Amino acid sequence: MTAFKTDRTASNMCGFTLMNNQVGAVIAEVLRPLENVTVSPLPSMIRVDATGRFDLVYAEVDEAAGEEEGWFDAAEFEENMSTHYGRMIHEDDRTIMFANPEDAAEYIGFDLQAR
């Protein structure tokens, strides 16, 4: 008998880990005020967890970093992120994280209707 058991219920959580560097700290600073987001600084990384959905708006990161508009983008984000869970969608002006894949269906062209 084991103390561990499987729990297949949905967590309704999504998130990612960031490098604990200047860019990661700015991303965390931008996301920290969101009601459904928890930012946990750790020695070698910054963990960002959320309930449901959240958007990382690139212009907000540009402003918080004191950089010109267009400095922060999906490539810069990917360079500073090490792993994620949930569905991640990159748009031109933001990255959207979804806890439930069904909520991302319209963004990825996934038809939820059974055929």
Describe, in plain words, how this protein is organized in 3D:
This protein is of the alpha+beta class. The chain has one domain: Phenol Hydroxylase P2 Protein (Alpha-Beta Complex). 25% of the residues lie in helices and 33% in strands. It contains four helices and seven strands, in the order βαβββααβββα. The strands form two sheets. The protein has a four-stranded antiparallel β-sheet with strand order 2-3-1-5. α1 (22-31) crosses α2.
Compose a concise summary of this entry:
The strands form two sheets. Strands 2-3-1-5 form a four-stranded antiparallel β-sheet. Strands 4-7-6 form a three-stranded antiparallel β-sheet. The chain is α+β, with helices and mostly antiparallel strands.
What is the fold's blueprint, element by element?
Layout: E1 13-19, H1 22-31, E2 37-41, E3 45-51, E4 53-57, H2 58-65, H3 74-80, E5 81-85, E6 87-90, E7 94-98, H4 105-108
Antiparallel strand pairs: 1-3, 1-5, 2-3, 4-7, 6-7
Q: How confident is the prediction overall: mean pLDDT?
A: 92
Strand content: 25-35%
Structural class: alpha+beta
**Which regions contain 5 or more consecutive residues with pLDDT less than 50?**
none
Rg from Cα:
16 Å
* Major sheet description: 4 strands, antiparallel
**Which CATH-level-2 architecture?**
Alpha-Beta Complex
Secondary-structure element pattern, one letter each: EHEEEHHEEEH
Total domains? 1
Number of strands: 7
Tally of helical runs: 4
Tell me, briefly, the overall form: globular
Which short descriptors sum up this protein?
single chain; 115 residues; alpha+beta; Phenol Hydroxylase P2 Protein; four-stranded antiparallel sheet; three-stranded antiparallel sheet; 7 strands; 25% helix; 33% strand; globular
